[in-house]
Amino acid sequence: MPGAVTHRTRFVVVIETRDGSRGEFVGGNDTMLAQARIIAGALPGRDALAREQLYSEIKVKLRKTDRMGYGAFDNALWDLAGKRYGAAVAEMLGGYRWRLPAYASTWSGHPEGGLSGPDAYAAFAETCHAMGYRAFKFHGFTEGDAALEARVVRTLGRRVGDRMALMIDPGCHIQTWADMLMIGRACDEANFYWLEDPMADGGLSAQGHKRLKQFIRTPILLGEHVRALELMADLLIAGGTDFIRADPDFDMGITGTMKIAHMAEALGADVEIHAPGPAARACMAAIRNSNWYELSLVGPSGGVFTPDCYACGYSDRLEAVGSDGCFPVPTGPGLGVAIDWDWIDHHTVDRASFGRDG
């Protein structure tokens, strides 16, 4: 919407050990905070380098939840280990590459907003192409208007399909299987790279998406709304998806994300990292079977998903893409970024400390 401002709440995790080692991570959201507090109370006194042990124990401890609260802590523990060893997390994970091909991932459209219809989406895709992006994903209209989203698909295919890989993410707003099929057939016509989370099931039904795949050629991507390694494996093995998602914020951190990536590799599937950020870059840098870095959520007026809270030049702004269409992987120790603590302190609304003494 013209002139609109969106506010997001994040949290910062800082982990310190007796020898002075320190790990930091900015991420998460307010819905994860209750779980985060439980985890924070359980970590003091534990071995900060025993990430696999902590992953296994927290997974059971939070078995009645989605476990999303743990990711920020695991990411901070990886940052701590990298700084202690003097190595980048991406290097510790395997260091497959150091520049990441990116796609511009839009926010949802609105009839009165900057992405008001098919031509507006196509014009923005052309702008992104001129900036260096060679892939583009649009989030559709949250009203679930399948005919409108199919028109956007076809318009993008005509305008930039010969120059950009194209994706669509209806965000689970499509209400019927028939409407989903309509969009899928439009994707086939426009040669889309993937169709992501179209169904109002919340991206959970392997059977529903498997049925869709019997009628369309466009690959399906699921996993943003599914938690845990085992459920991701079930989706792939059941034939419900072609690509799988992983997110170091949502999927129990870098440790959980790399487990998903290696599982997908064993099954011959690609894993696409959800959303940008230093931990996302570190993971994708070490994953062979991954294609695109998601630069979200953006539109004609810009937009940025990752807070401007770094004092080292790190940026996930739309215009930060390189002329080669890639983003660099930080090479400094740990996650390779320096947090601007003056910025954090200025924006802090609450804080809590946890230690062995309370």
User: What's the CATH class of the largest domain, please?
Assistant: Alpha Beta
| Largest beta-sheet characterization | 9 strands, mixed
Averaging pLDDT over every residue, what do you get?
Answer: 96
CATH architecture of the largest domain: Alpha-Beta Barrel
Walk me through what this model shows.
The model has no long low-confidence stretch (mean pLDDT 96). 36% of the residues lie in helices and 16% in strands. It has helices at 33-42, 51-61, 71-85, 89-93, 118-131, 146-160, 177-190, 206-213, 229-237, 253-266, 278-285, 341-347, and strands at residues 11-16, 22-27, 99-109, 135-141, 165-169, 194-196, 220-222, 243-246, 271-273, 293-298, 326-328. It folds into two domains: 11-89 and 334-347, Enolase-like, N-terminal domain (Enolase-like, domain 1, 2-Layer Sandwich); 92-328, TIM Barrel. Strands 3, 4, 5, 6, 7, 8, 9, 10 and 11 form a nine-stranded mixed sheet that branches. The protein has a two-stranded antiparallel ribbon with strand order 1-2. With 358 residues, it is an alpha/beta fold. It contains twelve helices and eleven strands. Helix 5 runs parallel beside helix 6 (146-160) and helix 6 runs parallel beside helix 7 (177-190). The longest helix has 15 residues, at 71-85.
